[in-house]
Amino acid sequence: SDDEVPLKTKENLEEYLQSAISFLQTQQSVLERTLEILEEIAELAETMKADVIRSISKEQEKKSRKKFWKLRKELKNLAALEFNEKPLFSKNGSDKSFKLFKDAGPNAPKIKQPAAPHYLKPLQASDKEVNRESVFESMQALQEMLGRTDATESDLQTSFTALASNPDSEKKLQFIEERVKTWVSEVIEGQDGLSVQANLLTQRVDGLMRGLNGLTQE
Cα separation of 153 and 111, whole Å? Predict the structure, then answer.
């Protein structure tokens, strides 16, 4: 009987979507903060070396380098953050991704873990000088990552809204975008072999929020 089914597919899918959306929103805010730091570093680069002609004193040099070290440490912490025990970013130099849930079909969007740490590496090279050009290159790469994260999050929000706003949506899904419709319909029609165990998603944002709060309080 229906009473014995622990979770309906629709509810389960909403849970997965919400978790993925939260992951991407976290990724967005971390990328935004990272870009802010890179902007600060680009400005500091000009004053990290004493220069009589440009009126940059030894004192200014010392102060700028100290600030740079502090910002660089924050960048390292941000790049290592996790959400629900999944790293926000790939650490091996190339982008990675994971499925929305274990048995998701090929049409379901994948959640990307972009290789942000790779683009921050040039900043680890020297304690004394920073190449502004390489900072701007890093910023451009991260801006592109942010754009892709925004686009995926928007797709998932569309799916979630369609599911959540219409109690009958199992029968007649109304989607704004065709590609979203395809994979969600597959899940709901059961072609996806959707597992009803949503226990992976019970760990919430708590750990991450603790991590972020810890960073901002340092």
Answer: 9
What six digits make up the tokens of 59?
Answer: 């004192």
User: Which pTM was predicted?
Assistant: 0.72
CA distance 215 to 142: 20
CA 151, 152, 156, 159: dihedral to nearest 10 degrees?
A: 60
pLDDT in tens, 102-115: 777 777 778 999 99
Q: Where are the alpha helices (DSSP H) in the chain?
A: 9-44, 58-79, 116-120, 132-165, 178-188, 206-217
- As given in the structure block, the two tokens for residue 136 are 């701007």
Which pair of structure tokens corresponds to residue 212? 């972020």
Task: For residue 188, give every residue at least 6 positions away whose Cβ sits within 8 Å of its Cβ, in sequence order, or none.
Answer: 9, 10, 13, 169, 170, 173
Token pair of 121 as six digits = 């590496």
CATH of domain 31-192: 1.20.1330
Indicate if the pLDDT at residue 179 is higher than 90: no
**In this prediction, what percent of the chain has a pLDDT beyond 70?**
69
Q: Burial code of 185-197, b = ≥16 C-beta within 10 A, e = fewer? A: ebbbeeebebeee
- Phi/psi zone of residue 42: left (φ > 0), alpha (ψ -120 to 50 degrees), beta? alpha
Q: Decide: 76 and 41 in contact? Cβ < 8 Å.
A: no
Q: What span, in angstroms and rounded, lies between the C-alpha atoms of 174 and 162?
A: 6
Residues facing residue 86 across a β-bridge: 83
